[in-house]
């Protein structure tokens, strides 16, 4: 898989960041691929982002139509629903990320700190929903059919990039 390394924060352009997480990507491991995910925290604007990240071509190959047919969505007529295993996986990922945000001092798990949260590529929107329930202002963006499921949970989620 091709990775793209960012030399600066994609929001504010700061070149100052600190690594906050560096572990195997469990989702990719479940698909027979090995990749480490490294989140960095921008010291200029507080954005947490993955660096290096998958190239656009690698993302398209990974999350193409077969991904949705195989892993995420079950179609019954014109209705689509999330597969139970996919829901369990996404809930686990949301809980892990919420824990990470708390460990980074961002999420205010004890109710201390609240703010705004934007998730780009929110999938089902489980993490923004958890933060919304804690009093955060949330917004999500999701380029796949999962945007509909995220929006149903009360998280504003336009479909697109």
Can you summarize this structure?
This protein is α+β, with helices and mostly antiparallel strands and 161 residues long.
Q: Mind explaining what this structure looks like?
A:
- With 161 residues, this protein is α+β, with helices and mostly antiparallel strands.
- 34% of the residues lie in helices and 25% in strands.
- It contains 6 helices and 9 strands; from the N terminus they run E-E-H-E-E-E-H-H-E-E-H-E-H-E-H.
- It has helices at 26-29, 56-62, 65-72, 84-103, 126-133, 146-152, and strands spanning 3-4, 17-24, 36-42, 48-50, 53-54, 73-76, 79-82, 116-120, 137-141.
- The strands form 4 sheets. The chain has a 3-stranded antiparallel β-sheet.
- Strand 3 (36-42) and strand 4 form a beta hairpin.
- Helix 4 crosses helix 5.
- The longest helix is centred in the middle third of the chain and has 20 residues, at 84-103.
- It starts with a strand and ends in a 9-residue tail after the last helix.
- 17% of the residues are buried.
- The mean pLDDT is 76.
Helix content: 25-40%
Largest sheet: 3 strands, antiparallel
Total of helices? 6
**Residue-averaged pLDDT, rounded?**
76
The residue ranges in which pLDDT falls below 50 over 5 or more consecutive positions are none
H/E element string? EEHEEEHHEEHEHEH
Structural class: alpha+beta
Please tell me what the overall shape is: globular
- In whole angstroms, how far apart are the ends? 21 Å
Strands side by side in the biggest sheet: 2-3-4
Gyration radius (Cα, Å) is 16 Å
Beta-strand residue percentage: 15-25%
In total, the number of strands is 9
